[in-house]
Amino acid sequence: MTVSLTGSPDSALSSSLITISPMRRRHLRGVVAIEQQASSHPWSLGLFLGELRMPTSRSYVVALDRHVVVGFSGLMYTGDEGHITNIAVQPDYRRLGIAQRMLLGTMRQAILQGLTAVTLEVRASNEAAQKLYQGFGFAPGGIRHKYYSDPREDALIMWAHDINSTGYDQRLSGIESASQQQARLGDQARLGDAE
């Protein structure tokens, strides 16, 4: 299958039209294309293939617009802790709630795996991503100096603890409800524009 990432989403695109699915080999061409856009040191096709060969300690999802990969996220885990390895959305599809929906699925998967805490790194200057993660209960836990290159920048280490608690489940349910409501409003606006 050939995956094209040159098109832009329809201006009336709603996040509700995007599906979140487990990552499969057939998605990797699109995943690698997004990874090359998003990272100064992108993962290779071989690295992603290796990750998919470890289903007992890895979980990856893709966001699809019809059959085109427009985003992906990954989680690796050991014991009761997980690490979000990457989360990226094709530039033309950003600000549609796709990263939030992928993160929601990733955190639900972390809970199903019996994890109690999840960590991630984010650029110190990426306030939008930090705000998203804070909504999921992630809080700063340290700095990795000069972690990123091109441009050279520190990483903020963030942690979400007690993700197996009732309170955290309620947090995720609230995020899911708000996301669904936002998608319904977007669909209504799109239908109103068509009249």
UniProtKB/TrEMBL annotation:
Protein keywords: Acyltransferase, Cytoplasm, Transferase
InterPro entries noted in UniProt: AcTrfase_RimI/Ard1, Acyl_CoA_acyltransferase, GNAT_dom, YpeA/RimI_acetyltransf
Pfam family, one: Acetyltransf_1
Example GO molecular function: N-acetyltransferase activity
Domain N-acetyltransferase: 18-163
Family of this protein: Belongs to the acetyltransferase family. RimI subfamily.
NCBIfam families registered for this protein in UniProt: rimI
PANTHER family hit by this protein: ACETYLTRANSFERASE, ACETYLTRANSFERASE YPEA
Name recorded for this polypeptide: Unannotated protein
